Amino acid sequence: MTHIIQEFKQFAIRGNVMDLAVGVIIGSAFSRIVNSIVKDLIMPVIGVVTDGLDFSNKFIRIGHIPATFKDNPDSYKDLQEAGVAVFGYGAFITVVLNFLILAVIVFLLVKMVNELRRLDTHMADETSTPAPPPENILLLREIRDELRQGRQHP
């Protein structure tokens, strides 16, 4: 049992697992930000441009409303909570917009990071000078040169 615990500690302490955990936490927060951008910023603008069209409540009811239903029959959320089968294409449009915005943001982030890496590599190449050859290489070159000169002048 202690061997399993030791292996788990080694697994959990590795950088990859910690990086993954940080990535999941940041990804979750990032997802909330994107959802808020779509819901609170983009969809209201689309609603104004389309004269009040609200995608989140667009649906087609495909099931029957139970006789005990007391809520709003035009509310997607109320119908879903009551277990009525609804085809929620508006919610789907919102999720697709979330995905597209997230994809664009991730693309721009990756592009920016790649550009920073390229600039860093370019700057490192410009500032670095090649290291002088080791002493044994210099000595071998001198011997080679002496041998060449010795063959040319008998």
Q: What order do the strands of the largest sheet run in, or round the barrel if closed?
A: 1-2
In whole angstroms, the N-to-C terminal distance is: 80 Å
User: Rg, please?
Assistant: 33 Å
The fraction of residues in strands falls at under 5%
Summarize the helix and strand pattern as letters: HHEHEHH
Care to count the β-strands? Answer: 2
Shape: elongated
Poorly predicted tracts of residues: none
Instruction: Name the structural class.
Output: mainly alpha
Average residue pLDDT: 83
Count of helices?
5
What is the helical fraction, as a range of percent? over 70%
Largest sheet entry: 2 strands, antiparallel
How is this fold's topology laid out?
Elements: H1 2-13, H2 15-49, E1 60-61, H3 76-81, E2 86-87, H4 89-127, H5 135-152
Antiparallel strand pairs: 1-2
